[in-house]
Amino acid sequence: MINFEEEVRKFKPSLEVNEAEDAIYNNDVKDITDVLEEMLQQVMGRNDN
To answer: What is the pTM of this model?
Structure first.
């Protein structure tokens, strides 16, 4: 039978998962809200960029 507590203690997350998590959270890509906001500012004549 598997000893769940022992398996949990031995668990170590994969470095690939940690690297992927950092890349996802540190990525500063515009989402659709940013794009729509920029378009609205251009239409209203208030383009600050």
So the answer is: 0.37
